[in-house]
TrEMBL record:
Residues 18-288 form the Histone deacetylase domain. GO terms for molecular function: histone deacetylase activity; hydrolase activity. Gene3D superfamilies: Histone deacetylase domain. It holds the Pfam family Hist_deacetyl. Keywords: Hydrolase. Belongs to the histone deacetylase family. This is Histone deacetylase superfamily protein. InterPro entries: HDAC_classIV, HDACs, His_deacetylse_dom, His_deacetylse_dom_sf, Ureohydrolase_dom_sf.
Length: 300
């Protein structure tokens, strides 16, 4: 069964001006249920992680300041949200969702976090709507519990996974791959194990051909036994914050390619949704829903 981490806390109101694009986290589960892609038993509410889980990926002083609201205003402006207890609770819940998804992926081959993909969160700071790096926390959980020996972070969001790259810079058991828009945020990039910057207006054919070649090279080079897939839909041509030009069909083919590759090599994969900032919320929800449909059709 496809297990999906759902976060009811997303239904809590946000300050005016911060509602979009957070709406997708409420609408996506509704859409999946309405169309029959998922049933209520597919969803689970994660709860909260132990602090020790978070502290494997984040500095204690930063986490303490985050929980108590002592992040300097200048640093919170980089995050993009005003600080609140509810915001910190949301981040912790997302992280626990990814931790639990790791176990469901080991059991079922694939699992999905309806949110997550907070790859701009560094060990000691947050930025760009990211405060706790859920997939980094998940990877550290697997390593600490001897559930994986060699992990691939497959980041296909339009933005480079700069926080993830920095967190695992000195960790040889985690290989960070980021294929992103060359001209996109962050404008000062970190160094992943393998960065693939793409030119503006890169479309379906070039994108998919590049990815297909790289996936086989990644397996030969990395030999992972677990994959974290950040499947942002901000690669779409309609995205306000992206510079690439994928069609919805190209985005669907990207997901199918990743899932087939993971299945062919017996690799459990945990998926976090990442970004999506098209002007129409229905475009964002439909693109994310395609990821769930694709996983459901290929695995179950």
């Amino acid at each position: 069964m496809l297990k999906i981490a759902f976060h009811p806390i997303y239904a809590h109101p946000l300050p005016e001006g911060h509602r979009f694009p957070m709406q997708k986290y409420e609408l996506l589960p509704q859409q999946l249920l309405h169309e029959g892609t998922a049933e209520h038993e597919n969803f689970f509410t994660p709860g909260l992680p132990e602090d020790s889980e978070i502290l494997r990926a984040h500095d204690a002083a930063y986490f303490e300041d985050l929980q108590t609201g002592r992040i300097p205003p200048r640093e919170m402006r980089k995050v993009g949200f005003p600080w609140s207890e509810a915001l910190v609770l949301r981040e912790r819940t997302i992280a626990q969702g990814t931790i639990r998804c790791c176990h469901y992926a080991l059991e079922n081959g694939v699992s999905m976090n309806i949110a997550g993909g907070t790859h701009h969160a560094y060990r000691d700071r947050g930025e760009a709507f990211c405060m706790l790096n859920d997939q980094a926390i998940g990877a550290c959980h697997l390593l600490a519990n001897n559930l994986a020996e060699r992990i691939l972070m497959l980041d296909l969001d339009v933005h480079q996974g700069n926080g993830t790259a920095a967190i695992f810079r000195e960790e040889p058991r985690v290989f960070t791959y980021s294929m992103h828009g060359q001209s996109n945020y962050p404008f000062r990039k970190e160094v992943s194990d393998w960065d693939v910057p793409l030119a503006k207006q890169t479309g379906d054919t070039e994108y998919l051909t590049t990815l297909e070649t790289h996936l086989e090279n990644l397996y030969a080079q990395v030999r992972p036994d677990f994959v974290f897939y950040l499947c942002g839909v901000d690669v779409l041509a309609t995205d306000k914050l992206g510079t690439l030009a994928l069609t919805p069909e190209g985005c669907r083919q990207r997901d199918a390619m990743v899932f087939r590759w993971c299945r062919s090599h017996g690799l459990p994969v945990q998926c976090s949704m990442g970004g999506g900032y098209s002007p129409q919320i229905r475009t964002i929800v439909e693109a994310h829903a395609q990821t769930f449909r694709t996983a459901q059709s290929l695995y179950f």
